[in-house]
Give the backbone structure.
Amino acid sequence: MNTTAATINARTTIKKPPTSAIRTVVNPWLMPVLVITLLVTIVVSVGIGALYVSPYEIWLILAKSLGYSAAVDATKEAILLAIRLPRVCLALLIGAGLAVSGAAIQGLFRNPLADPGLIGISSGASLAAVMMIVLEVKLFQTLTGLLGMYALSIVAFAGACATAFLVYRIARMAGKDVITTMLLTGIAINALSGALTGIMTYLATDEQLRNITFWSLGSLGGASWTSVLSILPFTAAALVGIPRLAKSLNLLALGESQASMLGVNLKSIKRQVIIFSTMAVGTSVAVAGIIGFIGLVIPHLIRMGVGSDHRRVLTGSALGGAIVLTLADSLARTIVAPAELPIGILTALLGTPVFLWILFRERRRAAA
Amino acid sequence: MLEVRNISYQIRNRKLLDGVSFQAKAGELLAIVGANGAGKSTLLKLCTRELTTLSGEVRLDKKSLTAYSDKELALVRAVLPQQNSVVFPFLVSELVLMGRYPHFDFHPSDHDYYVAETALKKVGMWEFASRVFTTLSGGEQQRVQLARVLAQIWDVPKGILFLDEPTTGLDLLHQHQMLELAREFTQKGFCAVVILHDLNLAAQYADQIVMLRSGRIEAIGRPQEVITVETIKHVFNLNVWLVEHPELDCPMVIPQQHQFSNRH
């Protein structure tokens, strides 16, 4: 409290040079690097596969589809436009959506260990999907008749919404400390859906079991422009909506009471984070099954890189999630070609060692 | 500036506050003192609108507290919390800038940066600006939090500052600097409401003291009127000596010897 160095007075016009320590930004180079990495990732992922397409050819094919005349290989054009491009788009959307929701949920719960699965979104979605696969009841058959192959996705999304809503309502009923109660309720509801899913697995036939496994390990194999378009509005809403909450999430890190003293409407921010995350995660589980790890680990890695300011963490997580999932999916479809690995296995298999390595390195540096 | 009219607060059937009224004028430092569980924090929470009550009214600048929007209130009143638990490893500079959040939408202006920097210099923590907040000691964290709170209402014409046991964890020098800083703010027309445990600090810095006992006001007024042997005996159940401050016109409290064995 150096009273000689500064006096209290109203607005002054003194401009500080932009180098002042108050403007410290952790690793300012990281965001541009992420953007460039994302672009490279897209080009590489679209190019590799059974038939290699060079960046120049990708450029020509895109130009042609936009109406310019260009001489391109018809097979490559068909593969690129009908298979690779929708798949990469799907991976980008899902990766970005999962990671940004994870970052927002961690901020809301004031806990770096939280993830979207915690409030029951993923388990609710998969329970609904598994029930639909196994029970084959009348309602589901009617739905399948009406909606065709999208019935499963829609049911899964409905399951995600229903569980998230249930967890939120129970927590609200319990009283004041909504966040802690939500965490506990989420754990309880997750256990319940786990048990119910277990019963379904027990009842399932061999063929149904294969379906369930595919579902619970996650895969982007079913990508098409229709699936991209069906999740686009939801993921886009989350990708625009969640970063808008960055300042409020920063203030929440000071504690709920301090956040409200600084003008944060707690009820509204909780509701928005939950709704946006359910939209992004629910739709992604609906089209690609459960893809673990991204929602928990990407925000964590980004925080290590860019610090804690959610204005950078949220955008950084969206970029990071998109990069990692797109790369993982490219690996999943090329590593054991012509077969495919479920992407959930790959993200966990590769992600865990990388994550542990970074974690230990950080801890050791902090201790030194 | 702050007017509390006959407020009560209860949780289930336990009355935490019962018919409390007082006024704090602009330019005044008001200290709230009392034993543990007397209702000091509840009173502060009602004044900052963290809690709301059905009976009685709190008015800020001649306007009912309930009539303010969250944002309006954030621009005039700032609260230094008793415990701080910051979960993510924010930088000190980022944390102080959070005090300016009510003043800008997405990007802080040069003025916001200037205020944050000045506030940080004011509390003597400028060298720590690019350190990680969670690695600081308790007392250092408290001073950074103070800078954040000051930055929040730095440039408003008539602000109100609430400090909940601000001296906890501070060394002797910084305890006094903390309260001097609060006084400095009152001199420019602010009002400061401070919960204090140390009666000597309250006597030395407060213009007005509210002494609470079991949710009611036991004594209210200037330090000389409130800090007496009788009120302290009644509120804290402690026998004390009072002596004159060598320089200032205020009492100092010295506990008597052997009183715990005398009591029963």
Remarks:
- The two ends of chain A are 30 Å apart (CA to CA).
- Residues 74-108 of chain A form the longest helix (35 residues).
- Residues 5 and 238 of chain A are 46 Å apart (CA to CA).
